[in-house]
């Protein structure tokens, strides 16, 4: 039976759009294939600690001689790696925080990006789909003053696509602050439309990937 690893990193447990979108992907995937198994990891509710030792960036065989990371930290990393490697598809809710990746998600990434274990040259994750659902408070349109300020999605594409060799799908919704920030009030309509379109794409993506992994 296929397995989906579902991660969320938003600190908003009530109205997060990245969480709503990631759940839409998962729901559609399960509806299309009820035999699927979902492994859930909420990186905000149960944070992964920062790496306890720099040697954990490397596979045991590639560590500097004499490296001795804490046994508990090494066991956690092994568990996170096994969880990822066992998944047929990965879905990640990743809101844009301060133009970059939430620290809760970054801590997880630091544990699972291990050359010689998950790097693209090993083929361990080659072609495996990863869906990133990202929400952004404002707009980052081409030609606008904020073009290029989103340093999250490009980094995640590089990491999961180039470094790990996975098949990356990104679903984005912007202007999540339109209803809160008076300066963005004229963009409420666009904000709601983008969310609707992103939810539709999330459902379509979940269904499509269920057929591919069945």
Report on this structure.
With about 210 residues, the chain is of the alpha/beta class. The chain has a single domain (about 5-60, about 70-214), classed as 3-Layer(aba) Sandwich (Rossmann fold). It has helices at about 15-30, 70-85, 105-110, 155-165, 190-214, and strands at about 5-10, 35-40, 90-95, 130-135, 165-175. The protein has a 5-stranded parallel sheet, with helices on both faces. Helix 3 links the parallel strand 3 (about 90-95) and strand 4. It is globular, with a radius of gyration of 18 Å. The model has no long low-confidence stretch (mean pLDDT about 95).
Helix-strand blueprint:
Elements lengths: L2 E6 L8 H16 L4 E6 L28 H15 L3 E5 L9 H10 L16 E7 L17 H11 L3 E7 L14 H26 L1
Parallel strand pairs: 1-2, 1-3, 3-4, 4-5
Helix pairs in contact: 1-5
Main features:
alpha/beta; five-stranded parallel β-sheet; 36% helix
Shape: globular
By CATH's scheme, which homologous superfamily applies? Flavodoxin domain
Give, in spatial order, the strands making up the sheet with the most strands: 2-1-3-4-5
Structural class: alpha/beta
Secondary-structure element sequence? EHEHEHEHEH
CATH class: Alpha Beta
Separation of termini?
A: 8 Å
Summarize it.
With 214 residues, this protein is of the alpha/beta class.
